[in-house]
């Protein structure tokens, strides 16, 4: 099996590190790029190939839904699985994310098992 490559986008350093450690538990060989803004994410996505994007919803400058919308408009990357990571569990947020084409949704707080299962689920599809 090829090495999994994931882009983690979150403006909170502690959350990026938590996600990184949780992913390493489930996927010891994983390759990750961790970025703190939408702008950094767009430049990474344009030069790297990812198997999955994990993105926080609420961020300064550019929100997760804006990053998702941008990715869905780009040939070659619009099919990369996109998992929104957020504290929003309200129905309208989930429906909005689904309309935009989100692959899956992780609600904070989450466990290593939840994040591992969600990644495994979208990578197998």
Characteristic terms for this protein:
125 residues, alpha/beta, 5-stranded parallel sheet, 45% helix
Tell me what the structure shows:
There is one protein chain. The chain is about 45% helix and about 20% strand. With about 120 residues, it is an alpha/beta fold. The chain has a single domain (about 5-125), classed as Response regulator (Rossmann fold, 3-Layer(aba) Sandwich). Helix 1 (about 15-25) crosses helix 5.
CATH superfamily: Response regulator
Structural class: alpha/beta
| Spans where pLDDT lies below 50 across 5 or more residues | none
Question: How much of the sequence is in beta strands?
Answer: 15-25%
Q: H/E series, N to C? A: EHEHEHEHEH
Return the average pLDDT rounded to an integer: 94
Rg is 13 Å
Short description:
With 125 residues, the protein is of the alpha/beta class. The chain contains five helices and five strands; from the N terminus they run E-H-E-H-E-H-E-H-E-H.
What order do the helices and strands come in, and which of them pair?
Layout: E1 5-9, H1 13-26, E2 31-35, H2 38-47, E3 52-56, H3 64-72, E4 82-86, H4 91-100, E5 104-107, H5 112-124
Parallel strand pairs: 1-2, 1-3, 3-4, 4-5
Helix pairs in contact: 1-5
């Amino acid at each position: 099996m090829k090495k999994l490559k994931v882009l983690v986008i979150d403006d909170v350093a502690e959350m990026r590190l938590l996600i990184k450690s949780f992913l390493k538990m489930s996927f010891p060989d994983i390759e990750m790029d961790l970025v703190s803004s939408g702008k950094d994410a767009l430049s990474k996505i344009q030069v790297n190939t990812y198997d999955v994007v994990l993105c926080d919803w609420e961020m300064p400058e550019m929100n997760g839904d804006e990053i998702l919308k941008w990715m869905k408009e780009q040939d070659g990357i619009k099919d990369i699985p996109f998992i929104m990571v957020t504290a929003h569990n309200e129905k309208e947020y989930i429906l909005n994310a689904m309309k935009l084409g989100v692959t899956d949704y992780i609600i904070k707080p989450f466990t290593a098992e939840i994040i591992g299962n969600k990644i495994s689920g979208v990578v197998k599809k």
